[in-house]
Amino acid sequence: MPTNKTVSLTERERVIIEEARVQLGLESMEETIEFLYRQRLKNKLFSLAGREIVKKKRSL
After folding, report:
1. Which domain of life is it from (predicted)?
2. Residue 29 included in any domain
3. Residue 15, class by beta-carbon neighbours within 10 Å (0-12 exposed, 13-18 middle, 19+ buried)?
């Protein structure tokens, strides 16, 4: 991530991120959080782009 920010996690969230870290084969929790953040952002952007395509098709 471009800037360092402190993130507070509950114990349950830490366990979930640790499980994801192991499954993804990443080195640290920070890498895992960054990876999951980027994936979520990509999904949202694709969703928004899809909505724009649908809007443009309706107006044609």
Report:
1. Bacteria
2. yes
3. exposed
CA 24 to chain centre: 13
Give the three-state DSSP class for 1. coil
Q: What Cα–Cα distance (Å) separates residue 13 from each residue in 24, 35, 48, 51, 58?
A: 16, 15, 27, 31, 42
Residues 24-48, buried b or exposed e (16+ Cβ, 10 A)? Answer: eebeeeeebbeebeeeeeeeeeeee
In a domain, 34, yes or no: yes
pLDDT 10s digits, 23-37: 999 999 999 999 999
